[in-house]
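Worked example

This section walks through a single chain of length 395. The input is the sequence exactly as stored; nothing has been trimmed or padded.
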Amino acid sequence: MFDHVVMRRSLGGQPISAGQVAEALLFYQKVHLVIDRGTLLGLVKQVGMPQLLTLLNRSDFSAVYCEEMLATSTDTVGAIQIHDLVALTFAGDPVAGNLKTVEDRLRFDLSRAGLSNSEAKRSTKAFLDRVPVRKFSGDHFIKGGVTDAARQDVLDSDYIRKAIHQVLQVIPGGYDTGPDLKFDVINSKLGLHVFTDIDFEAINRRRALIKPTEDPLSQAHLLTNVLEARADLALASFYGGDFITSAANSSIIKVRYSEILRRSTLNADSLQNFIEVTLPDAKTVAEIIDSGERTFSEFLILLDKAARFKTWAKTVNPDENLVRTYMRDVLSEGWIQRLPQKCIRYAITLALDASNPIAGLAAGFVDNFVLEKLLSGWRPNHFIDTRLKPFIRST
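Given that input, the structure is written out below as tokens.
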């Protein structure tokens, strides 16, 4: 069920954090991270470059480096805004001068992140030895490049209206425009012209009240959302497996290609339910690591003890509920005591369905229950109870 996952953006659109990587590694057999400059610098700040290189040496983790920044360039001619979808590469710095190669740019970024010149040089080589560099503007992910494909998307009048309608419902400060939204994009020799009736002033008033404050929304932001969604679609199609990205990008992809993210959504919901049932009222692994309560080094020790649990998670039938499978396998143990209330509800349901020894007990009178059938061997709750819970709760 949890074979491999590709991660590019968190739900809110921020770069993937070390905690989110850790949580994915705990369940998936293989995690592939799409690293851009923001993600790289964020991980270096969180865990340090040596730890990131250690992670890249693992067989269950891999990455690709996409340094290009996807954006919408905007020029104003009179009262008209003219847009273009672009993939930008950081070219240089007033002090450092021109940075012509990816090695130069990466070394510069690592130096700004606090590494000495010699450390930045060594780390750049080590990183590029482990991680391939790919371009959104090239043919690697999609023939003709992501930007050209996205231009076709924004010029599809029916699709662009539906896409913008969806994204306005999930972004902070947005609203449901209804089916009569106007968002027309015209292509000319100068570029892309947008004609819309979106109430940007009202949206930005609401965004200004959000803490932390959100940047003002504009036509260019919405076009960039479509561009980013096209990049995500290309990545998801190229790599396969589950795909994790922002809510805004996902909402756009689902307008036309909902099947691409269907399994990812089902697995994400299943994981969320599993965590709520097995670790009620506890912080998640991602929260523990991102808050600094546990280090990534400590997590890797835990991860090395999770092999049997990860194998079990992989073997879960995709057509079954993860929590249901967990409870069924746990109930095959000799006895279970002090299960969280949510687990008890699932257990009782399973017991009644399976005509198991406690089927005759009234659910309302069950506090602790003992199964007559005793089976030996490892069960998934062994890892949860003896490894994961102490890791989370002893902070």
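What to look for: The CA atoms of residues 21 and 368 lie 36 Å apart.
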